[in-house]
Amino acid sequence: xxxxxxxxxxxxxxxxxxxxxxxxxxxxxxxxxxxxxxxxxxxxxxxxxxxxxxxxxxxxxxxxxxxxxxxxxxxxxxxxxxxxxxxxxxxxxxxxxxxxxxxxxxxxxxxxxxxxxxxxxxxxxxxxxxxxxxxxxxxxxxxxxxxxxxxxxxxxxxxxxxxxxxxxxxxxxxxxxxxxxxxxxxxxxxxxxxxxxxxxxxxxxxxxxxxxxxxxxxxxxxxxxxxxxxxxxxxxxxxxxxxxxxxxxxxxxxxxxxxxxxxxxxxxxx
Length: 270
Known about the structure:
Number of domains: 1
CATH topology: Rossmann fold
Structural class: alpha/beta
Strand content: 15-25%
């Protein structure tokens, strides 16, 4: 994997990707933050050596380098999921590449379903902790110790300093911000009523199909990370209604301006 990382990094450096301070992973329907980025270089995933290719129709599949909030950033416009047939090592490969390029912090966004019935769709949850229900770990491969500590401590996977700043920004901008536990499942199917009840019992406030692998690898690499989850549907097992992807995208679009404010102002304050 070290050789594959170096090949990707060399390719990007030769094509105008400089040294970013902050990496950003954009989730489903959350791409408009790019309108605020002074873009200096961009590259489709399928042109970058050893990169997976985004197969989900609403994930664009570009790596973008530029300036946002006075900082050099590198953004993933579209991410990878194990439900696309990729391994967890594939899913998290871009995090290792961004780290090798120079990022010192990682910001992650996603779209998720609200398990906590005090949360409403169209609102945002700051992830305070997570539950990995994806069946494996992105660190479960031979030679992982060459890239970082094998037995990574996960007692506080999300950076307290950045999370506190995000909460303060939310107050200053009058943004309704929840805080809770994110459960990551395989997908791509949505959950049954029984599964939603199970998730509530084990302490999840929201459920999605991403983020946790990238956060585990960020911790493996010693990168402070914060993550925002846009709540796109309400998962009440006693009053469950079918959900269409168009509805999920619409709710993500509704909450996106607030997410952009939270991330942009956080970057400005770091």
